[in-house]
Design a protein that fits this description.
The protein is α+β, with helices and mostly antiparallel strands. The protein has eleven helices and 18 strands. Helix 2 crosses helix 3 and helix 8 packs across helix 10.
């Protein structure tokens, strides 16, 4: 960690995720937390940024032809540099109360397997948005720090960071990454799996916001008592058979198979990483278990299926969705 902060201390840290962007200041913690969304208008062949963040959320699947909603990141890495610049510039302004710091230094989280080209694109977007020196921090490491794992000790700590765009598995010891593995699926892919399930089984179409809410309703019912799990979930959208708007009721159990297929891909990566791990680190992980972080950590079946497949104790961090942000904040203040 000391090597990261050997230059002038950064004033800002950013957890720039596929679904949300969180900005931290060393003196206040999280000061900005909004969806990673931008809305552009198209006029005379040019695109203008008209809205960003929370304001854009309600626009999803509701825009006319002259407006388009974009996510700067896809599967954890930058896909639209203009959207990224606009969102970073707005986040910086909001985080500082409109009082712009003079080219602040920053820490920004990125996936551990991001390529050099992907890292360079993020640095370019940050510099164009008004930041000075930027250090990129691997998100699994930041999540491990935020979850309170003893990553600086001479012992293995294993984490599974379940983000919206990627799920990353990593083992740390002595402040460094020993093994890592990534699967480019996350909460957004599970949203799509829920929507596809309705399409195939019920000939019913729903949008991105409805798919996300359906996933959240499913998770809430599965974590509640059995009687609540048997209560149908009501979802609105368009019926393909009638070609008309409609609301239908679906059982939570209809989506168990979709969740199982999703978690099976994560289990495969976990087993692959464990299969490459040195014997002494393997003993540490057997003794200490595995930590789940990220918003997807709370999805039913996640911890149970990983534990069953590996024989390891699997725990979920406190406030798992904020582990990367909390870890980056700790780096600011250390």
């Amino acid at each position: 960690m000391a090597s990261i902060l050997s230059w002038r201390r950064p004033e800002i840290a950013i957890d720039f995720g596929t679904a949300n962007i969180r900005v931290m200041r060393s003196d206040e913690g999280i000061v900005f937390d909004e969806p990673s969304l931008c809305c552009f208008s198209r006029r005379n062949g040019f695109s203008d940024l008209v809205a960003v963040g929370a304001e854009v959320r309600s626009m999803l699947d509701r825009t006319p032809a002259n407006l388009s909603v974009k996510r700067p990141l896809c599967r954890g890495v930058l896909q639209d540099i203009d959207a990224a610049k606009g969102l970073l510039r707005y986040a910086l302004s909001q985080a500082t109360g409109g009082k712009r710091m003079r080219t602040p230094n920053a820490l920004i989280g990125v996936p551990a397997d991001a390529t050099q080209a992907e890292r360079s694109a993020m640095l370019t977007a940050a510099n164009d948005a008004g930041f000075s020196k930027v250090v990129l921090v691997d998100e699994p490491f930041a999540a491990a720090v935020g979850a309170g794992l003893p990553v600086e000790q001479a012992a293995g700590s294993m984490i599974i960071e379940c983000g919206a765009g990627t799920t990353e598995v990593a083992i740390f010891s002595l402040g460094g990454r020993c093994e890592t593995g990534t699967v480019r699926i996350g909460g957004a892919a599970l949203d799509k799996a829920f929507a596809d399930r309705l399409h195939l089984q019920h000939k019913f179409l729903i949008g991105d916001l409805s798919a996300e809410q359906l996933k959240l309703d499913y998770a809430a019912k599965c974590q509640g008592p059995q009687v609540e799990r048997e209560t149908p979930i009501v979802v609105g959208g368009r019926c393909l058979r009638a070609g008309l708007p409609k609301a239908i009721e679906v059982a939570a159990s209809d989506f168990d198979q979709a969740v199982e297929k999703h978690v099976e891909q994560i289990v495969h990566v976990v087993r692959t990483v464990l299969g490459r791990t040195a014997p002494e680190l393997s003993q540490d992980i057997y003794d200490r278990g595995v930590m789940l972080t990220g918003g997807g950590a709370l999805m039913p079946l996640m911890s149970a299926m990983i534990s069953e497949a590996t024989g390891l104790h699997v725990a979920t961090a406190a406030e798992p969705a904020n582990c990367v942000a909390n870890g980056l904040h700790r780096m600011l203040t250390s």
